[in-house]
Write a structure and sequence with these properties.
By secondary structure, the chain is mainly alpha-helical. The radius of gyration is 22 Å and the shape is flat. The chain has two domains: about 1-90, RNA polymerase sigma factor, region 2, helix turn helix motif (Rna Polymerase Sigma Factor, Chain: A); about 105-175, Arc Repressor Mutant, subunit A (Orthogonal Bundle). It contains nine helices and no strands.
Length: about 180
């Protein structure tokens, strides 16, 4: 059943996506409900798990245990959930400090410093190859995920990650020299 279901999903069969969800969702939801404080959180993360799973199905190896794979995605989503929760609690505990920082940012001296840094970044970027400039701008200025950059550059995901890494390393060296 598993291989036929996945093959049907990959061929674009909407009913197979529903069957896939109905078959695996109850187990994953029970797991999420035991790990998360609220049922709404579990339901929201369940949706995220299946969105990611359906997006990643083309990359799934033929003999992979689908259930274990889905549990791994769910586990990673739980880790992300708690990481974000921790960051939010830290930020909210720092609100008075952040208000002070916000006031400082609007001071003329800070604006001058910010402009110097921006100019140094631009100068460093201009020293890089066009490929490096392009991938850095796509990822950091336009906020395009690596997998979408890979598609637009017609590269594999790993090749795109590698190119981005090399571009960052070159930028760091250029920035230090500027």
């Amino acid at each position: 059943m598993r291989s036929n279901l996945i093959e049907n999903i990959l061929s674009g069969d909407a009913q197979s996506v529903i069957d896939f969800y109905n078959f695996y969702a109850p187990k994953i939801l029970r797991y999420l409900s035991r790990q998360l404080p609220r049922e709404e959180d579990a339901q929201e993360i369940l949706n995220d798990v299946f969105l990611e799973a359906v997006d990643s199905l083309p990359l799934l190896r033929k003999h992979t245990n689908v259930s274990a794979w889905l549990y791994k995605i769910a586990h990673n989503k739980i880790v992300d959930f708690y990481r974000k929760k921790k960051i939010k609690s830290f930020l909210f505990s720092q609100v008075p400090y952040l208000e002070l920082v916000a006031e400082e940012i609007n001071q003329p001296e800070f604006q001058l410093e910010k402009n110097k840094i921006r100019d140094k970044i631009e100068a460093s970027l201009c020293r890089l190859s066009l490929n490096y400039q392009q991938i850095l701008r796509m990822h950091y200025e336009e906020d395009i995920p690596v997998k979408n950059i890979a598609i637009s550059l017609n590269l594999s995901f790993k090749a795109t990650e590698s190119l981005l890494y090399r571009a960052r390393q070159s930028f760091i060296k250029a920035y230090e020299r500027a």
